[in-house]
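User: Second chain of the day. Same drill as before.
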Amino acid sequence: MGRVTLADVARLAGTSTAVVSYVVNNGPRPVAPGTRQRVEAAMLELGYRPNLIARALKSNRSNAVALVVPDISNAWFSLLAHSIEEAAYMRGLVLLLGSSGHSPDRERHQLHTLAGLRVDGVILARSPLSRSRPRTDLRLDVPMVCVNRAGPRGTVIPSIVVDNAAGGALATRHLLGHGHAEIACLTGPAEAGPLADRAAGWRQALRQADLDPAEDLLLRSGFGRLDAYETVKSWLAHDDHPAALFCASDELALGALRAAAETGTKVPEQLAIVGFDDIAEANASYPPLTTVRQPVADIAAAAIELLLRIRDTGEPQQDLTFDVDLAVRGTCGC
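Assistant: Same format as last time:
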């Protein structure tokens, strides 16, 4: 049997092709419940599948959105992707996913390829390593929203972020409240972006407490757990290291926890640790990780909402900044 058509479904359901089209497209005219059931039963029996590409070309809507992240193996970006997929599903959309591997060229390729598939919009989580790019790079002819990091300067792309500096200060003040007068900070390799902003919050909180955020208190590693583990293990080999460590992401904090375990450093008795993000593994580590919590479900819902507003109205949208809070668990000494 060849490709099943609307006419085949209409014939089996005992109705017109127009009514079958209304069922497939959920409009524009209503269909009586009994008729809808007959049409859906006929579609199931015949194995009918709508031609979504043809529908998208005709309606200029695909009911699909795309997300590009720097590294899908990073637990925070996995959580973000899952949350955006959930938010998209609640709005009747499907999600296409790309991972740039922190490569500007790969990010550019994925953005333009996904836009070429005529998705209804693209959500971009820019790599902290990506530098300012020409504005023409981001002229995709589809709605676009940036999450996790602000959009490039000189564009009107709205961004959805959290107050990273405030979160870094919150974590640092919590450690100060435990009596730590010397607090180190583990951040990533980038001089800009979310982790750099969190380190700036760490500096601010120390200065407000009349303490010096000396450069030897700032540790840098790659973004992953293994990089953090190696950096912190080397740092712990020095007897004079501080007894408190703010990690600018949970990925870094989990690497620090492994380093502490392997060097026999008791957490939190000998080393208090606070992370940032509140990924699922933060509550499954030992001890459970105290961390700054991002409202990921709210971020995801807002990203989908902004995309649909731009799609439906064509009007620019304002940036959004969410507050963070502290998930107090077992690594801080509480």
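The mean pLDDT is 90.

User: Great, on to the next one.
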